[in-house]
Design a protein that fits this description.
This protein has 318 residues and is of the alpha/beta class. The protein is built from eleven helices and eleven strands. The chain has helices at 10-25, 60-67, 73-82, 121-127, 140-154, 172-175, 181-192, 207-221, 228-235, 250-257, 268-275; strands at 2-5, 30-33, 88-90, 106-108, 157-163, 198-204, 238-240, 261-263, 284-287, 305-307, 313-316. Strands 7-6-5-8-9-10-11 form a seven-stranded mixed sheet, sandwiched between helices. Helix 11 (268-275) links the parallel strand 8 and strand 9.
Length: 318
């Protein structure tokens, strides 16, 4: 039996469950440890149920057996003297096919690559279909706001723009200096050059910062000879979406997935929002690298347009 240690928010949970599906397709027994990362007061919610997903949970005895985490005095002394004897795999950088060969392992990692489930991606896409809004049983106010936004998105050349500032994340050394203001400006310019009447729906974990950035972006993009009317119309092409919290963030993913095109950040939540977009002509703009000092190609999917931190076109993934 393998045990996958679940961690992170919805995006990471979706990658981990996709790995689970792949391992199951190979005939392996797999369970989840959804205890260790989700028992503190500040733990993020487990959100897979939004897709109607349930999963087999490992017992605490099974988890401690794999991780050599028993609190028995004898075993604690033995660990102090000789170290931990865990049957454990910790994710390496990028795609590692060795993960798919395990028969008895405690598996830790995010596994943020389509390569882990490429041959069953149609099944994964079917699995991660959001229910209709009417069937989500949302509070009336939230339902009305979401319905209105969804109607707008489906009636225009909507571009879902997910802003997740790399320099605001805990591990700045790993993520800093990637999703810069210039990156987002370059991404918006790329879309504007190719999509007539593009309208940008902006989602972010830092709406106050984003509002200031959007004002500056609009000013930099406006042509000097624009009339007041033209400027007002241009400003209306940038819409902040702010209705959701950590517990209703899946609605942001739903809305972004319904856009015609996507500009993403280097986050798993952002990645899935674009991956679930089923527009055959979609443009997906992504940052030129996913993490600092890590080979990034395994994170990208075919057709992604990469823009670097200076706002310049890097390449298009073939």
């Amino acid at each position: 039996m393998n045990i996958i240690r679940m961690f992170g928010g919805l995006g990471n949970q979706m990658f981990q469950y996709a790995l689970y599906m792949k391992l199951k397709s190979l005939g392996k027994e797999v369970k989840f440890d959804d205890i260790n990362e989700y028992r503190g007061e500040k733990a993020r919610p487990i959100m897979l149920a939004v897709f109607g997903i349930d999963y087999p949970r490992a017992t605490w005895d099974e988890i401690t057996q794999f991780t050599d985490g028993s609190m028995e005095i004898r075993k604690r002394i033995r660990r102090q003297l000789f170290g931990r004897r865990a049957i454990e795999y910790v994710e390496k950088d990028g795609y590692d096919p060795e993960v798919l060969s395990f028969e008895s392992m405690y598996i830790r990692g995010a596994f943020q690559s389509e390569k882990y489930f490429e041959d069953i991606k149609d099944e994964i896409r079917q699995l991660y279909r959001f229910p209709e809004l009417e069937k989500m049983h949302l509070p009336e106010k939230l339902y009305n706001v979401t319905r209105e936004c969804l109607n707008e998105i489906e009636s225009c050349m909507a571009v879902g723009l997910h802003m997740y500032r790399s320099d605001s994340r805990d591990d700045e050394e790993l993520y800093g200096g990637i999703c810069t203001e210039k990156y987002y400006e370059g991404a918006v310019r790329y879309i504007l050059d190719r999509v007539e009447d593009a309208k940008f729906y902006i989602f972010s974990n830092e709406p106050k910062w984003v509002k200031g950035w959007v004002d500056g972006l609009i000013e930099s993009l406006m042509q000097e000879d624009m009339s007041k009317k033209e400027k007002k119309a241009f400003e209306a092409r940038f819409v902040m979406v702010e209705a959701n919290t950590e517990y209703t963030g899946y609605l942001d993913m739903l809305l972004m997935s319904k856009c015609k095109h996507n500009i993403i950040s280097n986050s798993s939540f952002s990645w899935w929002s674009a991956w679930l977009n089923d527009n055959s002509d979609k443009i997906v703009v992504a940052p030129g690298k996913w993490k600092n000092n890590v080979e990034s190609d395994d994170f990208y999917t075919e057709g992604m347009v990469l823009i670097d931190a200076e706002g310049q076109l890097n390449r298009i993934i073939k």
